[in-house]
Amino acid sequence: MDPEFWHERWQKNELGFHQDGINAHLQRVWPTLGLDPAARIFVPLCGKSRDMLWLAGQGHKIVGVEISPIAVEAFFNENQLTPTKSVETSFTRWQAGEISLLLGDFFQLEPRHIEPVGGVYDRASLVALPPAMRPRYAQHMAKLLPPGTQTLLVAFDYPQSEMNGPPFSVPKREVESLFSPYFDVELRYSEDILESNPRFRERGLTSMIEEIYRLRRK
Questions:
Q1: Per residue in 192-201, is it b (16+ CB within 10 Å) or e — as a string?
Q2: Helices of type H across the chain
Q3: Bridge partners of 101?
Q4: 27-to-48, 94, 97, 185 alpha-carbon distances in Å
Q5: Starting from the edge strand earliest in sequence, which strands make up the sheet with 183-192, in order?
Q6: What are the Cα distances from residue 113, in Å, to 62, 64, 116, 177, 181?
Q7: Three-state DSSP class for 140?
Q8: How far apart are CA 194 and CA 175, in angstroms?
Q9: Any residues with CB less than 8 A from the CB of 214 and at least 6 apart, and which?
Q10: How far is residue 165's CA from residue 171's CA, in Å, rounded to a whole number?
Q11: Domain of residue 51, residue span
């Protein structure tokens, strides 16, 4: 899956992965991580997620990365925010208040782009990637994060044969295999969300479990 795939999805407004509201599990589980309210939170492959507004509302500084200029511009426009822009090597940083989005390729990120990072929120990043890209993603996340950094990871477990991703199914055994070399992995919550997401039933799913993990960088 190359960048052109995502550029095309945003150009065609094919945003089945986008969630208009604030993720309910974020609101429920995030406070249990016990992070400093002033900590900077990294949001990989952030799209135009409104979850970033909720996190900022908790006092956090936000730094996201997104490859689609359509998504970055939409986030600021839809939330009536006027960003300033600056160029940093391979990225353009769009910033408004405590929220900054780096327009560019996640895999070109270096720790200096997101430091100091105090936590991570991944709702639509891991599940956006096909199987072949996930090990590289986990390895790169490990390179970006200092020891002790906590991540709230949202993943889905459903019969992959019933629906093409994204979002892809990444079951518990795969999450553990990908991240356990670098992180302590703890499943915090799981829920069958198919009834409340009819768009996935319409795509042919018979089951869809949303799973919430706490990862802690070793």
A1: ebbeeeeebe
A2: 3-11, 24-29, 51-57, 69-78, 111-114, 134-144, 172-179, 198-202
A3: 64, 94
A4: 18, 26, 22, 20
A5: 84-88, 91-96, 99-103, 61-66, 40-43, 119-122, 150-157, 209-217, 183-192
A6: 12, 10, 9, 27, 24
A7: helix
A8: 21
A9: 29, 33, 150, 151, 152, 153, 185, 186, 188
A10: 14
A11: 3-217
Residue 52 and residue 40 in contact, taking contact as beta carbons nearer than 8 Å: no
CB 106 within 8 A of CB 45: yes
CA distance 104 to 169: 25
Q: Which residue has the tokens 């390729």?
A: 105
The candidate with the shortest Cα–Cα distance to 201, out of 173, 159, 149, is 159
pLDDT in tens, the chain (218 residues): 566 665 565 555 555 554 567 888 888 999 999 999 999 999 999 999 999 999 999 999 999 999 999 999 999 999 999 999 999 889 999 999 999 999 999 999 999 999 999 999 999 899 999 999 999 999 999 999 999 999 999 999 999 999 988 899 999 999 999 999 999 999 999 999 998 888 888 889 999 999 999 999 99
State the amino acid at position 67 in one-letter form. Answer: I
Give the 3-state DSSP-derived string for 63-78, with helices as H, strands as E and coil as C.
EEEECCHHHHHHHHHH
Question: How many domains does the chain fold into?
Answer: 1
Decide: helix, strand or coil at residue 118: coil
Looking up residue 124, the CATH number of its domain turns out to be 3.40.50.150
